[in-house]
Design goal:
mainly alpha, about 0% strand, about 85% helix, 2 helices
């Protein structure tokens, strides 16, 4: 009986950890997409030298 209860508790903990991990990945993926769009979209508006823009693009 104790093993079954322990199994259910670990199953619930695993489910919660998976939910948190999924939320973190969604948030970080969205933040990364947003930052890439901002950098790509505003590159022409930034007043930076050509070599610096080239280094930013390669990084």
């Amino acid at each position: 009986m104790a093993i079954e209860n322990d199994y259910e508790e670990w199953k619930e903990i695993r489910s919660r950890a998976d939910s948190i991990a999924t939320a973190v990945f969604l948030l970080t993926g969205g933040a990364l997409s947003l930052s890439i769009n901002v950098m790509v979209g505003n590159k022409s508006k930034l007043k930076l030298s050509a070599p610096l823009l080239e280094n930013i693009t390669l990084a």
